[in-house]
């Protein structure tokens, strides 16, 4: 379970071993309180039936006392057993490599250079270097979006694709490779766009991408009313709600929205932002505590996917 996306170059990590319930509650708590652009927190079982490990990554030196005081009501004296460690860039690359486990969705395989042996003859591969793993989101959000995209291609082939909040660029790369069409992709963070551009070059698809730096669709390449028949937005629940009118405006009349970056509990709030714009849930994918939503104009009967 992970809240937020890793900062590109975190400087510190907080680690605490505890029970599953406490780890999950702390993950949600830290994820809600801290800026997701500068902090990410993950929790996972260390071994079958064993204790859970909480890891919180920070882009700047954290207030250790404040964080211990924050988790103390949940874990008591265990709060003082948690350790804060500085991270060198070498440490972070090693951590990124460990986290860059292959993600498969149909023929699409996202992997690091250290997992090239996982490729199959007919795979459509996207290779991401650990040093360029900016917010890769190698968890339920990315895989959910990729599964949704693969299923969408069984019904239609989009011609105009937009990826809002592209991060490393994985979703845009998948669309460009599978559709052989130009994809517009943007992010509010210039570093994310720089990384996406470099990853595109490494994957040999830079000629298929138009990248921009701007919030949402506030760029002439993206702000094209009724133009895009597929729009990805794998960000967080709050910006998804805020962007509802903008994404609805740039999508074509028969277009599709694939939305993610939200926990299962956030789904009703996101749906309530899009339904007044004329959009309704068609499919839903739930993976690792995260949800990906496929939205269409008009009514639909939602079909969960797991």
Low-confidence stretches: 1-7, 132-138
Q: CATH superfamily name of the largest domain?
A: Vaccinia Virus protein VP39
Oligomer: single chain
Radius of gyration: 19 Å
Average pLDDT reading: 84
Q: What composes the largest sheet?
A: 8 strands, mixed
List the domain count as a whole number: 2
Structural class computed from helices and strand pairing: alpha/beta
Give the helix tally.
9
User: Could you give the order of strands across the largest sheet?
Assistant: 11-10-9-12-13-15-14-16
Instruction: Assign the CATH topology of the largest domain.
Output: Rossmann fold
Per CATH, the class of the largest domain reads Alpha Beta
Count of distinct strands: 16
Distance between the termini: 16 Å
Can you offer a commentary on this structure?
The chain contains 9 helices and 16 strands. The strands form 3 sheets. It has an 8-stranded mixed β-sheet, with helices on both faces. A hairpin with a 6-residue loop joins strand 3 and strand 4. Helix 4 runs parallel beside helix 5. The longest helix has 14 residues.
Task: Summarize, please.
By secondary structure, the protein is α/β, with parallel strands linked by helices. The protein has 9 helices and 16 strands. It is globular, with a radius of gyration of 19 Å.
Helix-strand layout with pairing:
Layout: E1 2-3, E2 12-18, H1 20-33, E3 39-45, E4 52-58, H2 64-75, E5 83-86, H3 89-99, E6 103-105, E7 108-111, E8 124-127, H4 140-153, E9 161-164, H5 170-179, E10 183-187, H6 190-202, E11 209-213, E12 228-234, H7 237-242, H8 244-250, E13 251-263, H9 267-274, E14 279-287, E15 290-297, E16 303-305
Parallel strand pairs: 7-8, 9-10, 9-12, 10-11, 12-13, 14-16
Antiparallel strand pairs: 1-3, 2-4, 2-5, 3-4, 6-7, 13-15, 14-15
Function: Methylates ribosomal protein L11.
Family: Belongs to the methyltransferase superfamily. PrmA family.
GO molecular function: protein-lysine N-methyltransferase activity
């Amino acid at each position: 379970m992970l809240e937020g996306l890793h900062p590109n170059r975190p400087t510190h990590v907080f680690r605490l071993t505890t029970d599953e319930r406490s780890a999950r509650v702390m993950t949600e708590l830290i994820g809600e309180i801290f800026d997701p652009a500068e902090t990410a927190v993950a929790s996972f079982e260390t071994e079958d039936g064993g204790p859970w490990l909480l890891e919180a990554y920070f882009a700047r030196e954290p207030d250790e006392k404040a964080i211990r005081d924050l988790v103390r009501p949940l874990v008591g004296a265990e709060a003082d057993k948690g350790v804060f460690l500085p991270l060198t860039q070498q440490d972070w690359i090693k951590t990124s490599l460990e986290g860059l486990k292959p993600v498969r969705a149909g023929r699409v395989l996202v992997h690091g250079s250290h997992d090239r042996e996982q490729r199959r003859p007919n795979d459509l591969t996207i290779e991401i270097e650990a040093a360029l793993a900016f917010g890769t989101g190698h968890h339920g959000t990315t895989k959910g979006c990729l599964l949704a995209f693969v299923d969408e291609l069984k019904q239609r082939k989009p011609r105009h694709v937009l990826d809002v909040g592209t991060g490393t660029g994985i979703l845009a790369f998948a669309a460009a490779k599978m559709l052989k069409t130009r994809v517009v992709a943007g992010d509010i963070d210039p570093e994310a766009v720089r990384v996406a551009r470099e990853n595109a070059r490494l994957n040999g698809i830079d000629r298929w991408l138009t990248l921009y730096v701007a919030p949402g669709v506030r760029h002439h390449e993206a702000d094209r009313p009724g133009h895009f028949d597929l729009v990805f937005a794998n960000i967080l629940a709050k910006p998804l709600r805020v962007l509802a009118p903008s994404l609805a405006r740039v999508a074509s009349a028969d277009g599709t929205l694939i939305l993610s970056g939200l926990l299962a509990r956030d789904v009703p709030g996101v749906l309530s932002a899009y339904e007044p714009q004329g959009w309704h849930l068609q499919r839903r994918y739930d993976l690792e505590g995260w949800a990906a939503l496929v939205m269409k104009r008009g009514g639909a009967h939602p079909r969960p996917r797991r």
